């Protein structure tokens, strides 16, 4: 238990990469902001690293969740050190190393030196990871967890197709599906084939050279689509009987990426189940993910690291869509 009166004083301001309006990467600026307020169960964390995800650039462009005001801080995942607990006997105390996920724009995001979030959104940082590695995990791994474990209910003997298996969410999804006993098929560019197989994929299809509905070795029970219909009609083609078996499940992850999903599924008339995916910043699920990481059953790959001042450049790289694993901001650089 920490006596709040003994804690060192905090700075009045923090560095943050903010979006000043909806638009391109040029609307991102480095500014000094007041530290985020702690309300009720909120824990104040000094951020050491923040992951960069597609939702960041989509929200910046005005295609994600509507921001309540400008300037605003984006960034949905982080790793850091607790500096203020929500109360004396709270689960996380000053000095604890944690990682977690933020619901942006309900909270100011993690592209800043400090975040304030409910302690139920946090878990202890995996001991085997650096902050730079841990900062790349929460949002992406929780998305994969929601798709594979919670909604998909994957188990031994099933067959799973993961689109974009080398990406941030995809490389976690491939590993989780493999861990829970599924035969895993993934789509990825040729340069990532060997790596995705190392993650646990049994078959990897080069989406740039082959049509996956023709190359897949047998229909699957679950499609986890991290692309949607916005690119090469990936969603519609995933409903092909050669891809998804009768009675199978199709989950589209990117918001708005397959607006005609339910109509397309109904037109199949094959008892298919279709769903979008919404994410909860679940600290208990993160605890399980941390255990899997420390046991060596789940790993994170960091492709590039940028300083906070290069947030715009990091978002452009992620938007390009060819990152292997994750891109991370180093808040200590």
Q: Would you kindly provide a written description of the structure presented here, covering whatever features stand out?
A:
With 333 residues, the chain is an alpha/beta fold. 25% of the residues lie in helices and 28% in strands. The chain contains ten helices and 16 strands. The strands form three sheets. Strands 3, 5, 6, 7, 8, 15 and 16 form a seven-stranded mixed beta sheet that branches. The two termini are 31 Å apart.
Taken from the alpha-carbon principal axes, the silhouette is globular
Report how far apart the termini are.
31 Å
Q: Can you tell me the residue ranges where pLDDT is under 50 for at least 5 consecutive residues?
A: none
How much β-strand is present in the residues? Answer: 25-35%
Helix content: 10-25%
Give the count of helical stretches: 10
Describe the main β-sheet briefly.
7 strands, mixed
The oligomeric state of the chains shown is single chain
Pairing-aware structural class of the strands and helices? alpha/beta
Rg estimate, integer Å = 20 Å
Count of beta strands:
16
Provide mean pLDDT, rounded.
96
Tell me briefly what this model is.
The protein has 333 residues and is an alpha/beta fold. It is 25% helix and 28% strand. The radius of gyration is 20 Å and the shape is globular.
